[in-house]
Write a structure and sequence with these properties.
Distance between the termini: 106 Å
Helix content: over 70%
Structural class: mainly alpha
Shape: elongated
Length: 122
């Protein structure tokens, strides 16, 4: 059994009460933060819903923007496929496309130097 003097017991009781007040404060702060977190989560969900609704409304009122985007993507894909087809055809014919591209660049540079030297315009 632990023997405490009245002063030690009073200090111990005061210390326990102080710790209980701290714990109570921490619990209250935790509850406040949980409530704030819930409110912010709900606000974020409402904001996402507003953005989705606005995007859907915009798509319904201006479908041409979406169609233009799709058309642009399709044109880019067609260009990429045409280039790949041309490279494949050249490989089948034994032409190295990288050499052709390098020579085309060198030719364009030589033509530019020639025009600059002779004073001609491209």
């Amino acid at each position: 059994e632990l023997q405490l003097s009245p002063e030690q017991a009073a200090l111990l009781v005061a210390d326990v009460r102080a710790q209980e007040r701290l714990i109570g404060g921490f619990q209250a702060e935790n509850e406040r933060l949980v409530a704030t977190n819930r409110e912010l989560g709900a606000e974020a969900a409402r904001q996402r819903q507003r953005q989705l609704t606005e995007a859907q409304r915009h798509a319904l009122t201006d479908p041409s923007a979406h169609e233009q985007q799709q058309a642009s993507e399709l044109h880019a894909e067609i260009s990429r496929l045409r280039l790949a087809k041309m490279e494949l055809e050249q490989k089948l014919l034994g032409v190295d496309f990288s050499i052709v591209a390098a020579e085309s660049t060198a030719l364009a540079e030589a033509e530019a130097r020639h025009c600059a030297a002779t004073g001609l315009l491209n």
